[in-house]
Each structure stands twice: as structure tokens, then as C-alpha cells.
């Protein structure tokens, strides 16, 4: 899917590290965090596998339909979960983008990671626009606010959240994958 191998490997490392962190977030004591982290781990590892440079590994033809099925199911699950939490809509869009890329790659000559594969320009453009907006909005939300001085407790006296339950880390995880999605959609 990518031209030179170096950016491809950087994308693989970024997505795999994000997927690994999301697996660690699945140990959270908060049910909502665990559910979201599982979908994000699947997305991170799936993106990492899809981003492996073609000079290293060209997957067999059956891989792309399998991606479409796996991420189609993940998208349906995210749509179902969106009834209770709005951020699951983003997971559904991400899964739909993965299905779209898998379909494009399945139709590409020799089922390779073809640079400039022929996706639908309107759909590719809409996904690029969505993920660009998501990256910008999430980036703004990550801008630090003035921290309240204190020990290990929050401003209201409650204990500070564990590292796996911190919402800014979950946002950073989603931001990382949205940037990776942009990098994967650009060659289409």
C-alpha cells in the first residue's frame, strides 16, 4: 500500500505500538474503557498488518476478503455500541475505512500493496476529510490545560485515575490511529 519501505515500517511500528497499548488498556477497571480498548487494539494491529511494505510481504489473495469480513463485523459491533457512547461512531467509520481499503487492495493487480491503487475518489476524499477533521479536533482536545497542584488526588478529592483509565491517553491512542489512517488512505 505504501511506496518506500521506511515510511511503511514507521507506520507499522506506530500502529503496532498503539495496538499494544490498547491491549494494556483492556485491563482497566472501567467497563467502557475495556470495550473501547478492545476495538482500538484490533484496529491498531489490523492497520499494522495492512501497512507492512510490499517489498517485504505480499499477502495471498484471501487476506483482503478476510480483512473485509473482520472489520465489517467490528464496524457492526461499533454501530451497536454507539447507542450508548458516541465515540463508537468513530470506531465504525474506522472499520468502514479498513473494509474499503481491503476491497480496494483485493481489486488491485496481483493483490499487492499497490501504490496508487484505484479506490473511488469521492469515497477516498470523504474518508480523508473525516480523518483530517478528527485529527485536528482531537489534537486540540489534547492541548494541556492548567494542572491543579496536589498530590495523588484530583481536585475533588477522589483518587487519580490509573494510567489505563486516563481519557487523554485514550484520545492520544485514537489520534495516533487516525493519523495512521490518513497515511494509509493517501496512496489510494
Order of helices and strands: HHHHHH
Mean pLDDT: 82
Specify the structural class: mainly alpha
Strand content: under 5%
- The number of helical runs is 6
Mass-distribution shape: globular
| Main beta sheet strand tally, sense and closure | none
Quote the distance from N terminus to C terminus: 8 Å
- Give the strand tally: 0
Helix proportion: 55-70%
Cα radius of gyration in angstroms: 18 Å
Regarding quaternary structure, what we see is single chain
How many domains?
A: 1
Low-confidence stretches: 148-159
Question: How is this structure best summarized?
Answer:
With 188 residues, the chain is mainly alpha-helical. It has helices at residues 5-25, 31-50, 63-81, 88-107, 121-141, 167-185. It has one domain (5-144, 164-185).
Short key terms for the protein model shown above:
188 residues, 0% strand, mainly alpha
Structure description:
The chain has one domain. It is built from 6 helices and no strands. Helix 1 runs antiparallel to helix 6, helix 2 packs parallel to helix 4 and helix 5 packs antiparallel against helix 6.
